[in-house]
Design brief:
The chain is of the alpha+beta class. The chain has a domain of 114 residues: Ubiquitin-like (UB roll), CATH 3.10.20.10. Helix content is 15%, strand content 31%. Strands 4-3-6-5 form a four-stranded mixed beta sheet, with helices on one face. The radius of gyration is 21 Å and the shape is elongated. The N and C termini lie far apart (51 Å).
Length: 168
């Protein structure tokens, strides 16, 4: 098990038109991608390995194995690099950008892991809705293709200007 190195670049350059001093100026803009990452853990003796999704987080793709292993260390699941058998992406690349958004980290068979240490007694949420999801598939939201900014504001019975005035 080893980390895959075929990760597409996490940033792109786009040609844009900037408005400055009342004029349009063509230029390039550098945009960094952000994608969800599902971290799965493989643990237990070789004859009876278990798999468990332990987290879904947002990240800039590129160093996913290091991120996942650092997460395991921060949560107290591993203490040393020697407790990790390996890490690799799995599943198909996302159709939009080609990133693999699931990574499996395998512990050495003799590492004792108690899944109850991951129990939480609080709830967090972010405006994007990723926090608290149980898998990358749960992050995907179905939005009708006909959805426009105007139709979203109609749902709330407000115009964009009214919304801006209310939010400051």
């Amino acid at each position: 098990m080893s980390d895959m190195t075929d990760t597409p670049p996490a940033h792109q350059t786009f040609d844009i038109e900037a408005f400055q001093d009342g004029r349009r100026e063509p230029r390039s803009d550098f945009v960094t991608s952000e994608e969800p990452l599902e971290i799965q853990l493989i643990f237990g003796p070789d004859e009876s390995r278990s798999e468990l999704t332990i987290a879904v987080t947002m990240r800039t793709p590129g160093r996913d194995a290091e991120l996942a292993i650092g997460f395991l260390h921060g949560e107290g699941i591993v203490r040393t690099a020697g407790e990790i058998r390996g890490a690799e992406h799995c599943g198909p690349p996302s159709p939009e950008k080609g990133f693999r958004n699931v990574i499996k980290v395998a512990l050495e068979p003799d590492v004792v892991f108690d899944p109850s240490i991951l129990d939480r007694n609080f709830y967090t949420n972010s405006s994007c809705g990723v926090c608290g999801k149980t898998s990358v598939d749960a992050v995907r939201v179905r939005i009708p293709e006909a959805a426009t900014t105007a139709s979203v504001f109609r749902v709330f019975d407000r115009s964009p200007r009214q919304t801006a005035q209310r939010s400051g």
